[in-house]
Design a protein that fits this description.
- Keywords: Oxidoreductase.
- Belongs to the aldehyde dehydrogenase family.
- It holds the Pfam family Aldedh.
- The protein is an alpha/beta fold.
- It has two domains: 271 residues, 3-Layer(aba) Sandwich (Aldehyde Dehydrogenase, Chain A, domain 1), CATH 3.40.605; 182 residues, Aldehyde Dehydrogenase, Chain A, domain 2, CATH 3.40.309.10.
- Helix content is 40%, strand content 24%.
- The protein is built from 15 helices and 25 strands.
- The strands form seven sheets. A seven-stranded mixed sheet has the order 15-18-19-14-13-21-22, with helices on both faces.
- α14 links the parallel β21 and β22.
- α2 runs antiparallel to α4, α3 crosses α4 and α9 crosses α10.
- The longest helix has 24 residues.
- The structure holds NADPH dihydro-nicotinamide-adenine-dinucleotide phosphate and 2-oxoglutaric acid.
- 2-oxoglutaric acid (AKG) binds next to loops.
Amino acid sequence: MGKTFENLIGGAWRGADDASENRSPSDVTDLIGTYARGRAQDVADAASAAAAAAPVWAAASPQVRADLLDRVAAEITRREGEIAQMLAREEGKVLPEALGETRRAAHVFRFFAGEALRLTGDALASVRPDVDVEVTREALGVVGLITPWNFPIAIPAWKIAPALAYGNCVIFKPAELTPGSAHILAEIIHGSGCPAGVFNLVMGRGSVVGEAMTADPRIAGISFTGSVPVGRQLAAGCAANMKKLQMEMGGKNPMVVMNDADLATAVSACLNGAFFQTGQRCTASSRLIVQSGIHDAFVAELSRQMQALKVGHALTEGMQIGPVASQNQLDGNLSYVALAAEEGCEVLGGGRLDRGTDGYFQSPALFLGARNMMRSAREEIFGPCASVIKVDDFDEAVYLANDTQFGLSSGICTTSLRHAREFKRHSSAGMVMVNLPTAGVDYHVPFGGRKASSFGSREQGSYAAEFYTSVKTAYTFAG
Ligand SMILES: NC(=O)C1=CN([C@@H]2O[C@H](COP(=O)(O)OP(=O)(O)OC[C@H]3O[C@@H](n4cnc5c(N)ncnc54)[C@H](OP(=O)(O)O)[C@@H]3O)[C@@H](O)[C@H]2O)C=CC1
Ligand SMILES: O=C(O)CCC(=O)C(=O)O
């Protein structure tokens, strides 16, 4: 039995009386490590340590905070090969995707190192004589960050970096499925000289650690990425405890393909958006809404390219699609493949694949002849599956694109400036792409959606300050 990776509480590593095994979805006989499973008491201790450290960290010079984030970025870059291996091994995304995500995390820390120095306020004239008004932003305090398994280093990075940059103390709870990348990130932040209590890692079950975070009065706000049902529960808990809340959840993102689209561009955007990273992105293109004139040529070429995708072990060179992340997730995907057939779709692909290891491999799937009201076209699957919905014209495409409970990202493939312009204007999603996949976003601009996809203010870019700071309005009488 090897060592158990521990939680980081108040600047010290701490074990737990329970632990979880981290196994690779490419081969479940590959035991990556054993990770401490924290309890409510660990959250309470982390909250005490963070609350004690908060005033000093909030008052630290922005240069001190910027320097810490710069050191973290440099260390992520120095260890990028090792981190990417861990990410690919524990989450199952193929190595080039894992390396891309690791680099994205380093960029995020570098970006927020700069943001620490750029936090601005306002000076306004009062309506009263000899009175000055200043509007400033202060750290929120202690924040709880709850992250999913599908981007185990980028999502933690885009929550932790702004939290620290703007002077908050952090309690970070990663998904139980992917504690390895989170643990390396914690080692890096700790090893980069982060003061005790400013950053805490509490691994463990969401139902235990996450709920304790929601209830703890010392935690001023929670930033969450994950599923809609957990988000709903969290929102109720945060409302009851008067906590600030920011949530990014699911999507059923439409990609519209117009008759006037460049076929190669459309196929490439849809192939990437629907199937890369095994479709396990909240921004995945899971509804392909295709105009009738291009439909048959588009389906023929997309099917050909989909069937040629190399699916296999995430660490095997040349693979394009890794395994599904877990047995649970695979079971869900396979049940949606069966449902799509029951609902009357012609299903291409979607079966379980044997790749010679004990892994969760599934071939990518297209649900042809889909209708937007089908459950398989309305519910988030979070796997390598996309519904193809045929439409007559632009208006019908826009109507169906918006006819969903979600509103995270949307896309259109077209060579018409008018279609692009109208789609950007009328899409009900928070992020709109033209001739680009619906997934794969920049790290320095706001990220988030509308309707059931998001709650609260935007993540990433300078917009992140909205969540991680609290506004103060100060009046001075100088008479
Ligand atoms: N929008 C997105 O980016 C993502 C969306 N999803 C969607 O969610 C589905 C399920 O994925 P899953 O990872 O299980 O998502 P969850 O919402 O279950 O998990 C996300 C995070 O929340 C934690 N959590 C679970 N229960 C609670 C709770 N009661 N209070 C506080 N935190 C909690 C989880 O902990 P733990 O897992 O450790 O128990 C994890 O860290 C996917 O099929 C997909 O549809 C999933 C991932 C990302
Ligand atoms: O598409 C992206 O780049 C980000 C997607 C994401 O954040 C998610 O799936 O959780």
